[in-house]
Amino acid sequence: MAEFTRQRGKRQEDGGLGSVLDLLLANARLVLGVSGAAVLAVATLAVKRLIDRATSPRDEGDPKAEQKTLEESWQDLALIKATPKPPKKQRREDLSEPLLSPARPPAPGEARKPEVCSAPPETARVESSPLCCLTLQEKLLSHYSSQLAVPEVQASLAPQLARSICAQLQNFLRSKCPELPFGSLFLSGPLFDGLGALAADHVNLMLPVVLDAALWSLIPGEDTVVRNPHYWMIKRTDLEYFPRGRSPWDRFTVGRYLSSNVLNETLRKMLVASINWPAIGSLLGCVIHPVVASQELKLEVKHDQVELSITLFPVVEMEDKVLLAAPPEGLVENLWLESFYRAEVSKVKELDAGDSGARQHCLRILNGICKSHPALHKLSGSPLTHVVLHLSATSWDWAEESLADRFQQVLEELVSYLEEGVLPSYFNHKINLFCELSEEEIDEMGFMLYRAISEPELLLKEK
């Protein structure tokens, strides 16, 4: 008997985690019942798979090992979250309570009152949500009309205010800096590009910087220390023939490069200290003040009916490139960001005009969902547009009737790009639009979108 006990103890020690799980599930069946034990078993299996994957050695020679691990993690997390809760067990006291209280017998001499049959209580009507009976196509259209449409008053008032402020700033620059060849200011953004705005709360104000092509040249970002093809440098050339001072922009150079940071700081001082915004705001019936604590050149406009944010971007157009004075955070201050916004809008409109497609409608819905979702807001804008453009090269049916199918297909494509951690630009495949996302952000976005593929309604819930 002692020998049997020793052998049994040894087997229990060798069992390790498996024995603990078996004992837990066996006892769970007694305590929770069959359904409760089944739920616990599913959750335990998922957790055990996560533990095994974390402790097992990786195959260093397999380049897809990291990608496979990420996708399996999303699957396991989705399995845990999708596990239904066991039904609440009825208490023994509830079973012993009588359904109806027994009628009290009348006292001697007390007249029996005639029994009046009361009307049965009205059965509570179960009003299902109207969306429960709708197709995904109808849900998307309903969500767009109820949640994403811009009020007409704001849609007309915001551009009017932006144009008035643009004219005032243009007059100031011409009088204050006549020696600097700025071009005509123009407005940009969803309110003006024809794609449809999600909210009348933001406008981009573009300030053209006119350069002499004989004195300046572009240097690709991959040829610089940053090794990033999304950024460019603007170099002053032919100094031996055209010395400093020949170009009015020479005072904004650092070394031999036009500094986007120096130009932005000069404009910031003008916006903050040189322009009489209270007087301009009083003239326009609003309050205008520059945002000092922002890296961008930003104005906040408050009107009785709308609040507007205006961001000023110096922009250089050379050699078919559109470069914005939006350097990345860090020590490098001479970089200019290449913008594809104008090309994106033009290409989407061109494709929709060619096949009467619904790409613009699909983008409005996707941008509205991502912009309002805390985990997906960094996907709104250019990343979504580039995914739709990539998808248009392989999927030809973009008719309005196929909106739901294309919506789900975009979600699947996004998950695929997030698994790889790379979203190539449609116009330059060397540029990775996900390069500034952290691993935690990619994992959170991927998990959310992975669940939304099988249950798109998750994205349509109000946040």
**Shape from CA axes?**
globular
Percent of residues in beta strands: 5-15%
Element-level helix/strand string: HHHHHHEEEEEEHHEEEEEHHHHH
Question: What number is the mean pLDDT?
Answer: 79
- The stretches of 5 or more residues where confidence is low (pLDDT under 50) are 1-8, 10-14, 83-129
DSSP helical segment count: 13
What kind of sheet is the major sheet?
9 strands, mixed
Please compute the radius of gyration using only Cα atoms.
32 Å
Helix content: 40-55%
Alpha-beta classification = alpha+beta
DSSP strand tally? 11
**What is the distance, rounded to the nearest whole angstrom, between the alpha carbons of the first and last residues?**
64 Å
What keyword list fits this structure?
alpha+beta; 463 residues; two-stranded antiparallel ribbon; 12% strand; 13 helices; 11 strands
Can you offer a commentary on this structure?
The chain is an alpha+beta fold and about 475 residues long. It has 13 helices and eleven strands. A hairpin with a 6-residue loop joins strand 7 (about 285-290) and strand 8. Helix 3 (about 65-80) crosses helix 13 (about 440-455).
Sum this structure up briefly.
By secondary structure, the chain is of the alpha+beta class. It is 46% helix and 12% strand. The strands form two sheets. Strands 1, 2, 3, 4, 7, 8, 9, 10 and 11 form a nine-stranded mixed β-sheet that branches. A two-stranded antiparallel ribbon has the order 5-6.
